[in-house]
Amino acid sequence: MFFLVHLWLNSLMPSSLVPFFSPRGIVIVGASTSPEKLGYGVARNLIQSGYQGAIHFVSQKSGQLFGRALYTDLAQVPDPVDLAVLVVPNTAMPGAIEACAKRSIHAAIIVSAGFREAGPEGAALEKKCLEVARKNNVRLLGPNCIGTLDTHLPLDTTFLQPPMPAAGGIAFASHSGAFCAAIIDWSRRQGFGFSQIVSLGNQADVNETDMLPLLADDEHTRVIVLYMEGVSDGIRFVETAREVTRRKPVIALKVGRFESGQKAATSHTGALAASDIAFDAAFAKAGIFRADSAEQMFDWARALEVCPLPHVGLDRPLRGYSTNVAVLTNAGGPGVIAADALEANGLHLAKLSDATEKSLTDTLPPAAGIHNPVDMLASASPQNYADCLKLLLDDSNVHSVMVILPPPPMFTTESVANAIIPIIQSSKKPVVVALLGSELTANAFERFTQAKIATYPFPERAASALGILARRAEYLDSGPLTVDQTVHHPPSTVSSSTDELLAAYNIPIASIKLARDENDAAKIAKELGFPVVMKIASPDILHKSDIGGVLLNIASEAEARSGYALLIERAKSAKPNAKIDGVHLQHQIESGQEVIVGVVRDPTFGPLVMFGSGGIEAEGLKDVAFALGPLSPLEAEEMMRKTWAGRKLDGFRNIPAADKSAVQDILIKLSRLACDHPEIKEVEINPLRALAKSAVALDVRIKTD
Amino acid sequence: MFFLVHLWLNSLMPSSLVPFFSPRGIVIVGASTSPEKLGYGVARNLIQSGYQGAIHFVSQKSGQLFGRALYTDLAQVPDPVDLAVLVVPNTAMPGAIEACAKRSIHAAIIVSAGFREAGPEGAALEKKCLEVARKNNVRLLGPNCIGTLDTHLPLDTTFLQPPMPAAGGIAFASHSGAFCAAIIDWSRRQGFGFSQIVSLGNQADVNETDMLPLLADDEHTRVIVLYMEGVSDGIRFVETAREVTRRKPVIALKVGRFESGQKAATSHTGALAASDIAFDAAFAKAGIFRADSAEQMFDWARALEVCPLPHVGLDRPLRGYSTNVAVLTNAGGPGVIAADALEANGLHLAKLSDATEKSLTDTLPPAAGIHNPVDMLASASPQNYADCLKLLLDDSNVHSVMVILPPPPMFTTESVANAIIPIIQSSKKPVVVALLGSELTANAFERFTQAKIATYPFPERAASALGILARRAEYLDSGPLTVDQTVHHPPSTVSSSTDELLAAYNIPIASIKLARDENDAAKIAKELGFPVVMKIASPDILHKSDIGGVLLNIASEAEARSGYALLIERAKSAKPNAKIDGVHLQHQIESGQEVIVGVVRDPTFGPLVMFGSGGIEAEGLKDVAFALGPLSPLEAEEMMRKTWAGRKLDGFRNIPAADKSAVQDILIKLSRLACDHPEIKEVEINPLRALAKSAVALDVRIKTD
Fold this sequence. Notes:
The structure is a homodimer of 705-residue chains.
Chain A: H1 18-21, E1 25-29, H2 38-48, E2 54-58, E3 63-65, E4 68-71, E5 83-86, H3 93-102, E6 107-110, H4 120-135, E7 139-141, E8 148-150, E9 155-156, E10 167-174, H5 177-187, E11 194-199, H6 208-217, E12 223-228, H7 234-247, E13 250-254, H8 268-272, H9 275-286, E14 289-290, H10 294-306, H11 316-319, E15 324-329, H12 332-344, E16 348-349, H13 354-363, E17 374-375, H14 382-394, E18 400-405, H15 413-426, E19 431-435, H16 442-450, E20 455-456, H17 459-478, H18 498-504, E21 512-515, H19 518-528, E22 532-537, E23 550-554, H20 557-574, E24 582-587, E25 593-602, E26 606-613, H21 618-621, E27 624-628, H22 633-642, H23 644-647, H24 660-676, E28 680-690, E29 695-697, E30 700-704
């Protein structure tokens, strides 16, 4: 199982963060005897949590709280103590941090608000806190967070209404404290529990990236879920997450999908690459599953927590992975809903073996449906459920099973649960249950929850859960992405021409020469070899064909001369104020398929590579795919597979096939080029012409800082 | 309000169906004193339901049941009685139906199973029941159904475990009895109730289409939801639903999305039109909202049941409808989730007026977010919620509001509910509540449910609910679809040429002539006028360009001669066994934009019209939209708006605009042509060339039965 290797990356956890997760003793600075104060709630929760280490309270007034002394000075607090929870007013925070350091406490959770989230003054205060912390080697969680929860240690540094959420295997880190609190309450009736909960607050110091390996190291954590509103250091986030996701599954709900993207982009790539697309690409590269909704995130987490992964990779060389699911139901309707939902989640209905269908026939009444979905009819008994489930799990064509369980008319739902729980628990294949109902299924729900079996109120959500199990299995099976690490020594972009730069990466380009007058044009055309293409050369005219600034099939020196004159005239007429450098000439390449390959530097994640339908329709069709550079061969292949432009390279009807591997190669090399040259803001080959046995860049545009 | 006009279509309810909905007296035939029998459950439920009419029992043995006499013969049952619930064994059913007629009962619900669903013998039995019923003027609901429920009358003819579901305004008709039963149990904890529930079973007689106007006529029903596995008479269904949806909203969950489509299609239109696409088109034409999941169906139904509709139509002439939503929250995270989800549902964050923002500033603490989403901060009191909600509802830029309510740290959730409920109830704008949590929000949930306010556990689902309210308002505002009813008298397709047929509908076509030898080709080319296009003419070569079977720019008689020879040679070499009729010639039309326009006859719904990107890439790009014929101008416009091919007709970069209204006109006319000629199975114009001031069909293919 993938979660047995949890000690791999222990070295990634900096020792400075250990006290947040396994403190020997905790002091609450700002503990209060007034029940309406946060400093009371934190104290109450820490004691009620059953935390086994030392618990100390510091308050302005001495006295007693929950039978413990209230110290008025942090210096008085006895050993052991290595974590502070700071609930003092915001202006007192820098002093409190300094006091922590003096008492040899180097980890502090700042619960108090009134910092960056409250305006410029708060931001200045937060900055000061961080300065004091850095100077004194104190690590900070927060400010403006609701603290941490560990259901297994146990430990509760929040002020939320007890009891703690149920113990489980889901670790949850959140940029929003309120969302955290709401999820904790919501989870109480959902049949799952948490291992760790971390509210990250303003992330003055410790952020989501720091947390990832720590949560992965937790032995009780089987799956990590993140609620994200952004990321502090995108590149470090992706690198860290790539390591973590090899060990434990990570699911993210990233909000802010519709925020405006990069406005100033001038290339097609730039115009199409919104910042949310970069997040999609980052999650894909990191192996993080991006959820569309909070409910989906926890639907997925529950399955990943408790289910084994399905077998995958059956017909891998041919058409990718395939996960075949058997559906067991006592009613036709929900079975059809399930079949639809499986397809929608990229799964397939398993074709049952003849032997399985024969056994089902022997077991079930004649009117039952023995083809998948297996419909046992409304009369199905607990024994029928158990027998048929065993038969399905024993069929090697079946990779996973969805059991559909509406309240059976003749039996209690609980009796069916009792019959199938041992089978699901001992199965090496994943089984999820669509448990339809509420009052009549309440006891069964409790039984499944206790047995750590994932249930969902509808087949659609159960199918989504089976889908994520398949994706996780595929991810682990496909292995880490390998990236070409060849070191290139290209000329710098500042001093070199585009030709030289692409040549350094072995990207074929149809050489472009600038003619500054008619005679020049004729001479260059002859050197390049007829036929040639002529294009207006002006920094102010980006979309040349828009103004008729491209001439094809120039076949003689005379045509080159008159072509020059024509292009200059058209440019002057279309853009009278444009600076015109002359005319570019290029040997005309044979016809082929045109695609676009570009890279735009995302401010958060770095080089974001685009592939898609080329030419002027790139933006209109939006037939494009994105991935973060540097690309592995698999990623480049995936980008082509996702687009019609890429699939068409295999040939379609009378369109002959083109050299797909040459395109893939150029995608990888261009991504490398962009990674090697941080000064390149955008680079775009449009079009890249894919021929039968090669691919050639016909037009390259590079924008540097 | 739209639901006040519920008496409009009363004439649509055939009097024969009245007893199913308001029987004067009911007899249960097959009532049983054994609690494990269905005949006991039905009797128990009918009595417990509080049904006010007469209740009678017929059984094999005389005696008593629930203090009532058990008659052994239906003939003995006294008046009043006009509805029978038949729970006798399947083989006794034809006799039971006949006995009903003899006792002057002309409506029967057949609960028993063992009919069509059980195999050929059952199907024969079902057919016999229907024959007996038709002969004796008895209407049948079922067989193999779980009966009907009316929470207001009240009435319960099911055998499901009591109590009845909560009373409400949602009418639910289902093709699956098991799904029906599961939904009833699930609904108990969801905060909504039903007006009517009808389990349709095998639909030997009464089907979902019969039910629609009946459910719409019910004064307690505000929204109708359908669980559908198919449709008996597609065209009647669409016609009936179009009327019903003008009065009350209808939502459908249609399963079987991924069943295989029409396999034998030879055109692009046929290949792209799967049967599920026809359902999408049918629902669109009927004004039915198609849900993606059971949960979504009821999320929508709840909002449509209790909320007023938002104002729409603000910037209609420019870019369609726009619904602007204000979000009120006490936490930033869920506010961002809401903003994302609103965009994803086609809604927009309202821009608040300066006056509103000023008032919010005066009301809220300085750190609060006064721009939409309005973040009142965690300290928000019930009074803050109430004051801010009022301000938002008073802003004319706001069309609807989502209130986000996680458990407030300093107040009970219930106290917030109490503060805002009167405001929501008296508002003419829709307000939905995202109520995040479970234990801490349980009391508030009860309060909202009692107050008939729609709550959702997450902002994503609340946004989806606001989205359906906007769609409903747009649907009602846009008015009924108007279709050109001009009667054409075209020549019959069997005897006429394609040219004549299209000419009868005023669809411009570049005339095509067949040449049978080289001299013929030269002569025809001269008549058509140079340049001409030449295409191989063979019934066995469908995709001509695949084999190089098309020649352009033929400019002289000599070229026409040699072109003829070349095409024949290419065809023979590519398909040696193909029957070759000769070569088609056509005057070459100036260049323009090429689109595809086609119609395929769907076996269920009739002419299914397609519009999209033309040429050989139609299937590859899948840039196509579908609608059911005959098209209204609005539908034709919508098809163009949905596709890149259609949007491009407005011009894009250096692609000049083309005559969009000519294309729209041809779409409408072709749909009319297909409707007028049931013998046409497929008709496709590919390409239709859109020029600056017209559009011309260049290639038309018609397939008849």
